[in-house]
Amino acid sequence: MPELPEIIVIAKQMDQALKGKRVEKVSIFQPKCLNRSKMDYQKHLPGKVVEGVRPLGKWVEMVFKGDDRLLISLGMGGEICYLDEGGTAPDKSRLIVWFTDRTGFIVTLWWFGYFHLVLHGERHSMTDTLGPDPLSISCDAFKELLDGRRGGIKSFLLHQKRLRGIGNFYIQEILFQACLHPLKEISALSDEEKERLFEAVQKVLKESIALGSSSYELDFFGRKGRYGLDRISVAYQENARCPACRSLHKKIKTGSTMQYICPKCQRL
After folding, report:
1. Does a structural domain hold residue 134?
2. Residue 88 pLDDT > 90
3. Has residue 133 been placed in a domain?
4. Which candidate in 32, 177, 236, 247 could, as Cys together with 200 as Cys, close a disulfide (CB 3.0–4.6 Å)?
5. Cβ(177)–Cβ(193) under 8 Å?
6. Domain residue limits at 53
7. pTM to 2 decimals?
């Protein structure tokens, strides 16, 4: 599933490659992903000029001149890929946007996702309620997000209305580097632990972005990132040992998700 680093990389590439292009036509093959009728997309998008593309947590937001927007979520997994002039879209495409210069881009989905058209002046409930960008807030603001909260720290960090863009792939390395058990109560965190957690969020996400994001995902031009298992301390490594204390990794259930931890470094 693409998370914040993947979306940041893709959105930046889309912004550079597509800005100023005019939409010629739109082909939609999965109407269940839409927030309005298919006819609305084919009526409003042709002729629109791309003003910019930006990341919104796990969403990509394409803004057109006139402030109409196309919001794309890849859900549990998928790809947004560029089409060169005269390129052929694969059969698995769920959305194709063609521009007047004969280039375009496709969106594929593995399970579910969204293509939402938001016209000028309209609100979009699924992104309007997102929490702050974890890479755009200060340590003090981060700690304020935790003040008065209850529940486990992992479930809080994965809640998109609290903090946007973090998912189960990156949270495991973040919590390991912060030496925190995923089920530790927020109310039990010391000020030092909160600062450590903030620093781990920054470090892990920024490192992945610098490496082109996860090696399990493709960028806008079909290339894999370089943030792979060699960069991860404990996650997804069965019968391996912690690089810090040499204890065996342990796989535990954390609500609806599973997680690898070091039982010594990440004590509850």
Report:
1. no
2. no
3. no
4. 177
5. no
6. 4-128
7. 0.94
